[in-house]
Amino acid sequence: MTGQPGQVLRWNLFIGGHLSSSVPVRLVERTDEGQLVWLQTGTPMWRTDLPGGGHLRDLPPEERPAQGYAVTPDRWPMGSALIHQPAGAGHAVFWFFGRKHKFRGWYVNLERRLHHGEDIDVADHELDITVSPDRSWQWKDERSFAEKTGHPAYWSSHEAAAIRAEGERMARCAEARAFPFDGSWCDFRPPPHWGVPPLPPAPARTVLRPGG
Fold first, then answer.
1. Tens digits of per-residue pLDDT, 4-26?
2. Entry pTM
3. Residue 161 DSSP label
4. Are 10 and 200 in contact (CB under 8 A)?
5. Which helix (H) or strand (E) holds 12?
6. What number of other Cβ atoms are within 10 A of residue 68's Cβ?
């Protein structure tokens, strides 16, 4: 794939096969080893409009409409993040930044990615790891990961073992202070002229079919 720094892509997060959010991000760097994208806090985005509020991950897939939910405009509520998406890997790593662009730590999102043109479709694997600036780390969402294991919309027990093994591999990288936890990119600043991407058209797909 080719791409120019600053190009706007769409980061689409799917949970149990249904779209949860779609956020425009900017391409920072792309090589044969993967890509880095920048997600700016406050970026206009689309999110699933759930009846009664709540979060998509708490709704059993069999109780969701087959065509997915409608989406509504919103803004990215969390801090700015640089996201490393290594080619062929079952994870992405976020460098999160707070006020005055202070580095706050890393977040390892265990996932499966599919690329379609300017769309980055992410099938979330629920289980994640938070890594502090001192490289101490901890699992996140272990209970809900276990509860979803075996459901046909999520992953089998065999797949769950591979997902956890990917997380364990990244935890060892953090302990060893190996890339991406070696201090690289912690001082990244996006070019001022990039600005915040505009709200793109509503996502064309709200359901991620098996195999993409």
1. 999 999 999 999 999 999 999 99
2. 0.96
3. H
4. yes
5. strand 8-15
6. 18
